[in-house]
Amino acid sequence: MKGRLFLIPSPLGDNNPGEVIPQPVLDLLPKITHYAVEEVRTVRRYLSKAGLKGKIDGLSFYLLNEHSEEKDVEEILEILLDGNDVGMISEAGLPAVADPGSRLVELSHFQDIEVIPFVGPSSLMMALMASGMNGQRFAFNGYLPIKPLERKTAIRNLEKHSRKEGFAELFIETPYRNDSILSDILLVCDDNTRICVATDITLPTQNIKTKSVRSWKKNKIQIGKRPTVFIIQAKSLN
Fold first, then answer.
1. CATH homologous superfamily of 123-233
2. Nearest-5° angle of CA 77, CA 83, CA 88?
3. Which of 64, 67, 146, 176 is the most buried (most CB within 10 A)?
């Protein structure tokens, strides 16, 4: 018998897991002893708050992040092939979305290992839900380029694509560059283009606002180093 790969959601911040994680997920956690994780310290804290305090040392953790090599993924795959269930947990939100866990999921399918996803918080979908932008046609663009000129070009291209195709264009940024990227957006985008800034989703400090570039310029905010999703939607020329 092969094990099963459980895709386990995690809180988007320092929430009590019971506030944002469904009860079936919390009931599952004590039954798993092998975890593929993006960050061990974060997951240990999460599991402790979820009711496993005092039992963490009996668990096995395997790093699966942007530094993982193919051999690391294959090591976790062997654990599944040996008949052990594995829970995959990312740093925040849903695993295998905007993080490197998708490779383990892919290999699991090739080996006919059952992959079981669980519902939980997704900053991308929750930002889109709350933005008022096009939920029928949207694209997630990951991280934009780091170099300022390349980043501005990328923003212009997203705005152009949004104007032509009607897409809501989602992207994220490393928190310490949040304010820089907002400044770039307001610099290069048309005044009528709508921008959603969704910060600290699900946390007490949550702030989600959609405004035109013109309005953002008049009421610019300081985001700081807080997890944020940005969405651009341009007005059609038709």
1. Tetrapyrrole methylase, C-terminal domain (3.30.950.10)
2. 50
3. 64
pTM of the model: 0.91
User: Residue 134 is which amino acid?
Assistant: N
Which of 28, 25, 46, 49 is closest to 37 using CA atoms?
46
Cα(31)–Cα(34) distance, integer angstroms: 10
Alpha-carbon distance 176 to 128, whole Å?
22
Domain boundaries, given as residue ranges, for the chain? 5-117, 123-233
- Contact yes or no for 238/217 (Cβ under 8 A): no
Q: What is the pLDDT of residues 114-147, one digit of tens each?
A: 999 999 999 999 999 999 999 999 999 999 999 9
3-state secondary structure of 195: strand
Tokens coding 46 = 């999460």
Beta strands 86-89 and 5-7: pairing type? parallel
Cα–Cα distance between 186 and 39 in angstroms, integer? 34
pLDDT at 109: 97
What's the mean pLDDT in 168-191?
Answer: 95
Which is it for strands 34-37 and 60-63: parallel, antiparallel or unpaired?
parallel
